Amino acid sequence: DIQRSWDKVLVDAYQNMDASTGLPPKYGPVGKVHFYEETYNALMALLLSAEQNADNLVSGNMVPDQVNPVSAMYNDGVPYHAIEVMSEQPGNITLGEKLNHFFIGGEDGTLSVEKYEEGVARIMQSGYQDPMDPLENMATHPFSMIWDCGFTIDTKKELCRVLGHRKDVGVVLSTHVDGEESLNWVEEEALGNQLKNIMAAYPESTYYGTPVARGVVVAGSGTYSGSSWTRPISVTLDLADKVARFAGAGDGKFKADLGFDVPPNNQITLLRDLTNTYKPVTQRIKDWDAGLVWAQSYDRRSNFYPGIQTVYNDDTSIMNSMINMIIEMELQKVCFRVWRDLSGNSKLTTEQFIERSDRLIERNTVGRFDDRVTIIPETYFTEGDEARGYSWSCKIHMYGANMMTVGTFTVVSHRNEDLTA
Predict the structure, then answer these.
(1) Most exposed among 28, 59, 198, 383, judged by the fewest C-beta atoms under 10 Å?
(2) Is residue 131 pLDDT above 90, yes or no?
């Protein structure tokens, strides 16, 4: 009952993808193997014929499937009479776990920027519907963000497709295109409006009429600090680093001391020689309306993000803040986790079901978001739910603070006597 087929055991012998162990996956040297079965069977038939001609007494009842081309021995360890396994490497007569065998005759190929973009666009166009590896599967693909590292405009458009497939995933686009000249103020604003409009084609909720919120557009580029790489790099690299440090921990909890909306965490650290770090007030207003996030001079030596907004077009809403956007996307994942733990349950009463649902939501959210929001679950049954008998409804209420970006300061002069009074 041991599986010994080459195409079934060869790859798995060098890797371990069993997620139930709790250990990270161990990838083998190759992802898949094509087995030329018809050719292999023809070769085994030739070998068997040669062996039977040499010693028909022992091999007379054998079939091609029983020929061992690895060891050239019978099951009892006796060598074949007409077949011998040779090797160009001295000592490597047979295959074995203690011997090295190298693939020869192939090549690694090349991965140009154009080929890379072509592959990314192909995944965005069809990857979510791929039956072999559906990116829509939240359980097996629990990613939350797609980052634009300087793609062309056409590929930037393709990245936005995820907004229509996954309500728990956001997209961060850049006005920078790798290999092209840096943009000026007016060009950044124009491209920002274009990218914002592309995202607007994927509304957050058609039922409630909520426009797109899970999008961010970052302006500018710079030089990667501490590296020999000299080509301009999108500012998204720095922002991605900050998001990962703050919200990318394995335990799912935000790191309270790494919030990237407070100093010094909101200062750009990975890039130098940033573009357009000063813009007049009129231009900053236009850029803000275009949904842009940009780097601005903090002092003579450093730059910072004056506000990290989403493309949501209502400044009075907490959905205009990128951090709140990240929390809202995680709440979508919480909804999925709670659903999978409740789906199929036929034991609980209505009251017990509501209590169980609310408790699961609380358990999945408590202590995770740096005390930035208050989460209140509300599980209920509508008249339609009660009539159907198999469905339920739930709202997760999220209360948070608006992002502060506009300050009005007034210097008022007084005499010392006024202070005493």
Answers:
(1) 383
(2) no
| Dist CA 25 CA 276 (whole Å) | 43
Tokens of residue 129, six digits: 């519907």
**Could you tell me if 289 and 371 are in contact, meaning their C-beta atoms sit under 8 angstroms apart?**
no
Q: In this structure, are residues 148 and 234 in contact, taking their beta carbons and an 8 Å threshold?
A: yes
The sheet with strand 215-218 has its strands ordered as: 145-147, 170-174, 215-218, 292-293
Segment holding 217, helix H or strand E = strand 215-218
Residue 132 confidence (pLDDT): 79
Dist. CA 130–CA 299, nearest whole Å: 49
| Residue range 79-117, pLDDT digits in tens | 999 988 876 666 555 666 676 777 777 777 788 889 999
Q: What is the pLDDT of residues 396-413, one digit of tens each?
A: 999 999 999 999 999 999
CA distances from 185 to 221, 285, 307, 349 (A): 12, 12, 17, 61
Amino acid 46: pLDDT: 96
What is the phi/psi pair of residue 84, to 5°? -135, 135
Task: Say if strands 221-224 and 215-218 run parallel, antiparallel, or are unpaired.
Answer: unpaired
Rounded (5°) CA angle 302-400-353: 140
Distance CA 215, CA 200 (A): 9
Average pLDDT over residues 377-381: 98
Burial class (CB in 10 A: 0-12, 13-18, 19+), 52: middle
b/e code 227-238 from CB counts within 10 Å (16+ = b): eeeeebbbbbbb
Distance CA 375, CA 313 (A): 24
Percent of the chain with pLDDT over 90: 71
| Residue matched to tokens 């506009």 | 406
SS3 214: coil
Backbone phi, then psi, for 72, in 5-degree steps?
A: 55, 45
Report d(CA 375, CA 365) in Å as an integer: 7
Give the containing element (helix H, strand E) for 342.
helix 322-342
Contact by Cβ (8 Å): 392, 357: yes
* Residue given tokens 């062309």 in the structure block: 152
CB proximity list for 375: less than 8 A, separation 6 or greater: 331, 361, 362, 365, 366, 369, 396, 397, 398, 399
- The answer, yes or no, to whether residue 178 has pLDDT greater than 90, is yes
> Region 310-320: what's the mean pLDDT?
95
Token representation of residue 219? 């302006």
